[in-house]
Task: structure prediction
Amino acid sequence: MTVASAPTVTARDEALDMSIKAVPVRHYGQWLTAVVVTVLLGAFVMALAQNENLDYSIVAANLFAGPILRGLVVTFQLTAVAMIGGVLIGVLLAVSKLSSNKVLSAIATGYVWFFRGVPLLVLILIFGNFSLLFDTLGIGIPFTDIMFVEVETNAVMTTFVAAAAALAIHEGAYMAEIVRGGILGVDHGQKEAAAALGMRPGLAMFRIVLPQALRMIIPPTGNQLILLLKSSSLVSVIAGGELMTAVHDIAAVNYRTIEMFFVASFWYLIIVSVLSIGQRFVERRAGRGYNR
Amino acid sequence: MSGKGNMNSTPMVIAQGVRKSFGRHEVLKGIDLEVNNGEVMCFLGPSGSGKSTFLRCVNRLETIDAGRIRVDGSLVGFKERNGRLYDLTEKELARQRSQIGMVFQRFNLFAHMTALENVMEAPRHVRRQPKREVLDRAQDALARVGLSGHEHKYPAQLSGGQQQRVAIARALAMDPKVMLFDEPTSALDPELVGEVLDVMRGLADSGMTMIVVTHEIEFAKEVGDELVFMDGGLVVEKGDPRQVLENPQQERTRRFLRATATV
Ligand SMILES: Nc1ncnc2c1ncn2[C@@H]1O[C@H](COP(=O)(O)OP(=O)(O)O)[C@@H](O)[C@H]1O
Ligand SMILES: [Mg+2]
Result:
């Protein structure tokens, strides 16, 4: 730690003489893998490029077609709404599950158990056909006929609302576990220090614990967002109007299914790439205040 | 030069028959103590003797199984009405804790906040005092612990000694009636212990009532008004720090002091 002996000139010369000229280990395996993979990949790309059943002009013509771009916008809207909803539900569930209120905790546990168990596709189908279950929705006093507000299910449950709700509710179950993990990862001393200063548990949670949990919550949340974006394509089964629905609609007319799937893949790849870059940026910012 | 002499004899903290168990393990077996206003009480004792647990009972970070603790006349954790005890609500408990400062062995500064934000947090969001006023007082508090110029550093950018001084400033910002210190220098490199003890000495001089768990014998001798030696959940011996340290009456105390002296 201390400067016991400052390096003298001779010591430094000696260090120079001892500079390293070692022969690095040759990674033959790595070379071999690279060659094999290149050959295989090349063969596959050639097979696709020369495939006479594929008409690339159709892919090109549809990439920026109006319905596709409109579908893209709906995909963004759906993902954004479902993600915000999912995060809110997730935080609420995580805090409930960790609270001393046993009823809240049980509800949160039940929610996560149920909505992680039901396949997203099934959930979307149920929400998309909600009017088969209940033809009206309303607010009233349970077990009585008194209703304050009542509306036709189909008037509120548009496909967009149904799709967004299904995605958000599903996302909430996963976010709950991520947020809970983040909260548990924060040093217990932080909560004690907050309590000792007179902060009530709720205040300590939102001002002290959650902001620090964010650092652990953000990376997996980025993955969830990417997953959710792609999962939104499932909404096409109820004609949710997003990118995949648009792709299906066009394919139903031009019978160029594979070409249209290429169009979809192109856009999903682009968006996911942009999101991944954003994710890295946000992760770096979330590290503020921590030594690294 | 110390907290000695400026005490008057109204008790700030009173513990009567305090008992506490974790499961079947009884950690506090009936603690009776009084800390007068402006007095510095130091706790000494082997690891696991219940010093931290007692301190944590004083601000209700731990609940007690039997006995009573009072701070400035009010019962800690309960209210008494018609001879019955009622648990305090979260809100009342928080209010009570806001009047008792605590400094932890491992600092526990809020890692996502700067030094200044750490000190401002409770006055702003617990007391809801106006921002300007809080800012001024937070800067004063940091100056008081010798950390002017470090306001905008995050805990990770500060040395252990600096972090602990921020923690002291953070507690002081709430104008506590009493300050509890749980081995405030035990996690520090030896060369940083002095700066924290100096701050604590200054605090004692200013008349702050303090309960200090420490292994710093010299500090206890100089600053302490009373020294309590604990072992196995009981107070073995207490009295004037010099008396207890230089002329211990109990064999258990002698053995402990001999063992620590050889270290
Ligand atoms: N939260 C807890 N749960 C169970 N046992 C505990 C807990 N906290 C402390 N103890 C036990 O209580 C005893 C006293 O601990 P502590 O008060 O920390 O002692 P000291 O501070 O004197 O070293 C120890 O045996 C410890 O293991
Ligand atoms: Mg301890």
Notes: Residues 117 and 245 of chain B are 41 Å apart (CA to CA). Chain B has a mean pLDDT of 92. The radius of gyration of chain B is 18 Å.
